[in-house]
Amino acid sequence: MMPRPGVEYSNRGVPVAHCFRGYAPGPGKKHSMAPRQADQKKMSIISRRLSTLSSEQAFVKGHLTRPALVSISILTFITFVGNFTQLQLSAALPTIVSQFHISVTTGQWLTSIFQLVMGVMVPLTAFLTRRFSTRQIVIASMLVFTCGSVLSWLGPSFFLVLMGRVLEAIGTGVMWPVLQITVFSIYPLARRGMAMGTVGMAMSVAPAIGPTIGGWQTDANGWRSIFLSLSVIGFLSLILAIVGLHNFGENDHGVKADFFSVGLSIFGFGGLMFGFTNIESYPPQHPLVWLPMLIGIGGIVWFILRQITTARRFKTTMPGTRSAAEVQPPLLDLGVLKNHSFTIGTVCAALSFFAFSSIMVIIPLYIQDDRGYSATMSGLVMLPGAFGQCIAQFGGGKLLDRLGARPVALAGSLLLLIGTVMMSMIDVHTWIWWISICQFIRQIGMGLVLMPITTWSLNCLESIDVSAGSAVTNTVRQIAGAIGAPVLVIMMETLTRMRQGAMGGGQSAAIAANIFGVRWTLRFSALLVFVQLLFVIFGVKGDGAGSARDVAQRAFARLHNA
Predict the structure, then answer these.
(1) pLDDT tens for each residue of 153-169
(2) Contact 531, 390 (CB under 8 A)
(3) pLDDT > 70 fraction of the chain, expressed in percent and rounded
(4) Which of 76, 102, 118, 218 could form a cystine bridge with 92, CB 3.0-4.6 A?
């Protein structure tokens, strides 16, 4: 049978119109004439939804095309929801601790386990983005996230609420790397700073406004209303992904993942955190302290050695041979850390997250338990910082494209250090809005450090390594944030007990001792920020980093041209 002009055929020789109507003509039957107009419209809609956008189709004449803009907007919104969820419970933590009669260290698992699971999920991004389409990843993620939110909403015990948080983290853990890889695959090098600053603005402001809204919901309708709203948002995100999201990149259904390495990372980092959190209840020589920590360290070492060995075997296998099809790439390609600039950027991001995440847990405890304010007030005190980081995140992307990463990161690190030192001066009579001012300064610093440093470090890699680099830097960053909260909370409570014992006990002594613990924990955070500042001063150099000399030369050039 000769094909007719103007009719689109499938790879089986059947007109596409018949396939969409569920009809394939049998032998000897003539094809019908042109499909009805309604069928044509239906075909067009389905084809548009299932299409894969290449970089040439997504970015045309310096602008995103409409399908790409809609898809990026959906990915950004869903990633915003995930980051928003991370610290939304921090303002509600004192209420949850009181209701379930648990310790603060146990209660903070609701925030730290979220970041830990996200850190474990990030290495799977490279496998998932190669094996599945963008739509498949996002739709499955939102299904899991919504189920987790419902479980935490209805769960009668702390354990079930915690399991719901685990499902939420699994559902959102891959979204930021997917968005990051999509931005890098669409935008040219000269526009990535602006693009990452724009999407990063939403990502950075999300965890900052989470405590504010979470505190208001806790006071108004109880902490479970947080999970009710997340269930509704998850369902709406699922609908958006089904209706408007396009695919990016190609898929290889033969790709396999190293799930043994996933298990090692879970036992490694989970065991280390579990051992740390048990220090509050047991002495260091107790098996529930040293044994999980020993298992955790062993799992982490085994995980690192396995990634190095797998990467070496993968790179030395001859392409096209039978063994090449059997050898899979490592779950986390640590070879990108050989790039000095990328390693510096990753360390800076990890130190920032370590200090930032812990303070977002400690300060609400100070405001509510030590100063007697409500959860809503706790969230409102933290709210101006969200606007500061939003402004800095957007401006940081522009400044990165103009000046380079070094001047921007130096300014951000200094502001982050100054704000943390100012916050460490709090006492029982401190003006409550002083905390807000300090947090505003700190989050401006975070906005000027995090996204420019991350974008610069990824730009230092070859384009083929960007996906692996994104997985490494996001894994390290999330795990640093997850470990930071329990470590610094334990430090705070240990210092509090020591101080209270020295003061002789009593309610007034308990409040004063707790403020003492908060102050010195903040000073330790300031020390970490100072170390990060040294990394920026001595490590952020080379192509794309920029310098004061570069800034001066550009300023003189603009004056000369004017």
Answers:
(1) 998 999 999 999 999 98
(2) no
(3) 77
(4) 218
